[in-house]
Design brief:
mainly beta, 64 residues, 0% helix
Amino acid sequence: MRLQCEVEVVSRLLPTCGLRGRGRGTRALLSLGRPPGRAQGGGVYLMVCTARDRVGARYKHEGA
């Protein structure tokens, strides 16, 4: 599944370090799926690809 949308990735550690986020989003392509070659019980990943980072950042989904 792929979605084109406006996203803002925020680290939850920023406030504890005394830092603030940029506060603005960017156009991105969100992909949701499993890594290739894995069994059906494998983990689910969220991939965020932007014009600046074409390879994308992968976030593993934990939970049900």
